[in-house]
């Protein structure tokens, strides 16, 4: 089965450090999402791209977060500087968004970020 | 903005029994999709079942079925013959299909329901 690959699986970092999370979407998928999961807020959409163009990043703190798709096989989410409140599981998901598609999105296994 | 509400933070069921998880949503759109995702302790998000809003027939996937009530904006998940492997967090999700809207393709999740299966 095709998979969305996220790296690293777990990351522990010190407050103030830069963190980069990577995602390899499924080949042929034209839409990529970044979600953050916490106990308090549940699953929040941070940003998403269609055909590598950002569609919506209103859920992302712009002062410290940035999301990019340098090419169709790589999406990145960066936090600089990181803060303890950024501790969460970050999911990448990809899918096909075109007309009346019947497909759900495929999620990666997430990156668990701990900022100490 | 669309919202998804799961009113049951936790549910439990005996193995081999049937359980229903509730979900309601709020939208002014006519074209959308609804999903149920399962998240076991491994944290992987797994698609369980999907429903197109323009279809009246309820979706079914093996032991999983939904009761889609469009007018009531309700989308419940029924798990029949529950198995120990069904124990997980279940998320209901809404996806806009309004190509001209700012939320096109965006997946909005409910808060989740933790399902425990007792042997």
Polypeptide structure, described:
The complex is a heterodimer of chains A (116) and B (119). By secondary structure, chain A is mainly β. In chain A, 0% of the residues lie in helices and 53% in strands. Chain A contains no helices and eleven strands. In chain A, strands 2, 4, 5, 6, 9, 10 and 11 form a seven-stranded mixed beta sheet that branches. In chain A, a hairpin with a 3-residue loop joins strand 4 and strand 5 (42-50). Chain A is globular and about 40 Å long. The mean pLDDT of chain A is 92. With 119 residues, chain B is mostly beta strands. Chain B is built from no helices and twelve strands. In chain B, strand 5 (32-39) and strand 6 form a beta hairpin. Chain B starts with a strand and ends with a strand. The mean pLDDT of chain B is 93. Chain A binds chain B through residues 31, 33, 42-43, 45, 48, 50, 55-56, 89, 91, 93, 95, 97, 100, 102, 104-107, 109-110, 112, and chain B through 33, 35, 37, 42-47, 50, 52, 91, 97, 102-112.
Principal-axis shape of chain B: globular
| Total DSSP helices of chain A | 0
Percent helix range of chain B: under 10%
H/E topology pattern of chain A: EEEEEEEEEEE
Main β-sheet of chain A, in a few words?
7 strands, mixed
Enumerate the spans of chain A where pLDDT stays under 50 for 5 or more consecutive residues.
Answer: none
Which structural class matches the secondary elements of chain A? Answer: mainly beta
Share of residues in strands of chain A:
over 45%
Quantity of strands of chain B, as a count? 12
Measured on Cα atoms, how large is the radius of gyration of chain B? 14 Å
**Helicity of chain A, in percent?**
under 10%
Tally the beta strands of chain A: 11
| Largest interface, C-beta within 8 A | A-B, 23 and 24 residues
Mean pLDDT of chain A: 92
Q: Which percent range describes the beta-strand content of chain B?
A: over 45%
Biggest sheet architecture of chain B: 6 strands, mixed
Structural class of chain B: mainly beta
CA(first)-CA(last) distance of chain B = 41 Å
Measured on Cα atoms, how large is the radius of gyration of chain A? 14 Å
